[in-house]
């Protein structure tokens, strides 16, 4: 039996490891480290944004996190950059991609759907792959996964 250490950074299959995600989120998040404060924030966000509010915060993962937050200082770089945003999804809303572009620059490929992470199953994934293959960026908008009809 192996012993895990380092919040999953030593995981032999690191394709997706929640410990890595928590370390990235919590080392940056200035959210509360105690449950009572997190719960008050959660209830307020849910009241303000009834649909997305219950899913729009990862701060609960940081309850009990032992390290203080480290503020990121974004600025434009010199290397090519391709941003990708999904028009209607709540995990990483498109306005955040616009904010990031305002801070660091870079073309924004917009996927017209509400599904976080759908790019890998869409034809327009070729635009993202092209960036990795050639450095060519795109400001295109492309169709995404079908959005379910309103009930």
How would you characterize the overall build of this protein?
By secondary structure, the chain is of the alpha/beta class. It has four helices and three strands; from the N terminus they run H-H-E-H-E-H-E. Strand 2 (108-112), helix 4 (125-134) and strand 3 (141-143) form a beta-alpha-beta unit. The protein is globular. The relative contact order is 0.11. The model is unreliable at 1-7 (pLDDT under 50).
Précis, in short:
By secondary structure, the protein is of the alpha/beta class. The protein has 4 helices and 3 strands; from the N terminus they run ααβαβαβ.
Keywords:
151 residues; alpha/beta; three-stranded parallel beta sheet; 4 helices; globular
Main sheet: strand order? 1-2-3
Gyration radius from CA atoms, angstroms: 18 Å
- State which percent range the strand residues make up: 5-15%
Helical amount: 25-40%
The helix/strand order is: HHEHEHE
Outline the biggest β-sheet: 3 strands, parallel
Number of strands: 3
Give average pLDDT, whole number: 81
Distance between the termini: 49 Å
Give the overall silhouette. globular
Helix/strand class:
alpha/beta
Contiguous low-pLDDT stretches (5 residues minimum) are 1-7
Number of helices: 4
Topology readout:
Blueprint: H1 18-28, H2 35-48, E1 83-86, H3 94-104, E2 108-112, H4 125-134, E3 141-143
Parallel strand pairs: 1-2, 2-3
